[in-house]
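Example 164, ligand magnesium ion.
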Amino acid sequence: MTEERKGHIQKESEPPHGIKVIALDVEGTLISNAMSQFPRPGLKFFLEQCQQRASRVVIFTAISHRRFEALARTLVHEGSAPPWFATLEFIEWSGPHKDLRFVPGVTPQQVVLVDDLEQYVAPGQQAQWVKAPAFEAPYSPQDRGLWQVLDAFDRLGLYNAPSK
Ligand SMILES: [Mg+2]
């Protein structure tokens, strides 16, 4: 049995425990893209939920740190994101995958990656991936993708954390 298959079975039968970090993709997950920067419906609520459900929230994106900070400041200024969004921990990484070993101080099993694209998920880390339905044109105000992610957090046992 491959590592990937084992991870899949684990996800179905026994949610991983001890998740400490929520790692968030940006483009297609939280916003449209770095050019148009449309916030996804429910973004501010979603980010606040992330902060309550994990002890650490980090950004794991293909766009540069500088670019992220600039667009995040705009979203904060618009009221589309909480003030701390622009100063979130930013994961520096390289290679073809968002390998969760790039997240400092924890094991990959303690991280959940929220991303619309499976191609970024590192081999063997499928169980740590929460698929965000892609936020795509025409960017409907009826989009409920972030609520679907919160439902997935519920299934993983990521409720409001009793202690931080
Ligand atoms: Mg994406």
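Summary: Strands lie at 21-24, 56-59, 89-90, 111-115, 129-131.
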